[in-house]
Give the backbone structure.
Amino acid sequence: MAIVNKAEFAELVGYSPRQVSTWMESGMPCTGAGRKGVPVEINTADAIRWLIERGSMDRAEGSQRDRLALAQAQRVEFENEVRRGELIPIELHGELLRKVAGEVAGQMSGFPGRVAGKIASIKDPALVRAKLIDECNEVRDAVAGVLGDIAESFAGALPAVPDGAGDCEGPAEDDAGHLGEQQPAFAEG
């Protein structure tokens, strides 16, 4: 018979300390619970016997069975996202960032030269502001164009998804249900 604290008992039985607190509130044998400054002591033999008699471990929120079912559902969802082309390899993310950073840097480096001549003779601040806004919109459009080109090249780099292949099912014993609607790879607007 070992005497352990709440965290040690949680680790021993494979549940969270929060779940152990719930069991303690429900009457699981322990000493020191609820008193400030007094450490909780759990007799492992008594507590495990109590859990088995109540079947608490099978019904516990976050039980091992629930965690396994969740992990299986997440794996199937991940595989579906890969098949549908919603996830891309990490190497492509680096390429995307390099291209976008290059375009932004080029646009911003050229900004003063493109704008200086246009606004040098303008005395009205409202017209200067309008010219600057126009140039900023040009920069934004150029970056958006690069992102569109990159999106198209990424779509070409991903494997084609045959009709119906994006919605695989999990193991026969796993009744995870519908995993969600397909989300667009890039937001429009």
Remarks:
- Helices lie at 6-13, 17-25, 44-54, 56-59, 64-83, 90-119, 125-157.
